[in-house]
Design a protein that fits this description.
Protein name: Thiamine-binding protein
InterPro entries: MTH1187/YkoF-like, Thiamine_BP, UPF0045_domain
Number of helices: 3
Strand content: 15-25%
Organism: Phycicoccus endophyticus
CATH class: Alpha Beta
Distance between the termini: 24 Å
Family: Belongs to the UPF0045 family.
Length: about 100
C-alpha cells in the first residue's frame, strides 16, 4: 500500500513556522526503512498495512507529545500483492508522456 499523509500541529511555533514539528515526523518516516518521499504538501510511504500505520502512529504520538492539537490527513492506495508502486506509478506516467 501507498499512504500519502500530512501531519501538522494545530498552530505554528513562535516564528509562525510548522517546520520543526513536521521535521520530526519526517525523521520518523526516514528512520522506518520503508520506501518514502516527501514533497511540499505530503509525505508518501509504502509498505504493509501494519508497517505504514505503525509509522503514522509514531508520528502522531511524537507530535501530540509537544502539541495539544494535531491535524492528520491520510490518503491510501491499497493494492494487495503489489510493491514498488511508489516509483513505478510515476514511471508509467513518464512513459506515456514520452519522458521515460
Amino acid at each position: 500500500m501507498i499512504v500519502a499523509f500530512s501531519i501538522a500541529p494545530g498552530s505554528p511555533d513562535e516564528s509562525g513556522s510548522y517546520a520543526a514539528a513536521v521535521a520530526e515526523a519526517v525523521r520518523i518516516v526516514r528512520s522506518s526503512g520503508l520506501p518514502h518521499e516527501t514533497n511540499a504538501m505530503f509525505t508518501n510511504i509504502e509498505g504493509e498495512w501494519d508497517e505504514v500505520f505503525g509509522v503514522l502512529k509514531q508520528c502522531t504520538e511524537a507530535m501530540t507529545a509537544h502539541h495539544p492539537r494535531v491535524s492528520l490527513v491520510v490518503k491510501a492506495d491499497i493494492r494487495p500483492g503489489h510493491t514498488g508502486m511508489l516509483t513505478s506509478k510515476v514511471r508509467r506516467i513518464d512513459e506515456v508522456l514520452g519522458e521515460g
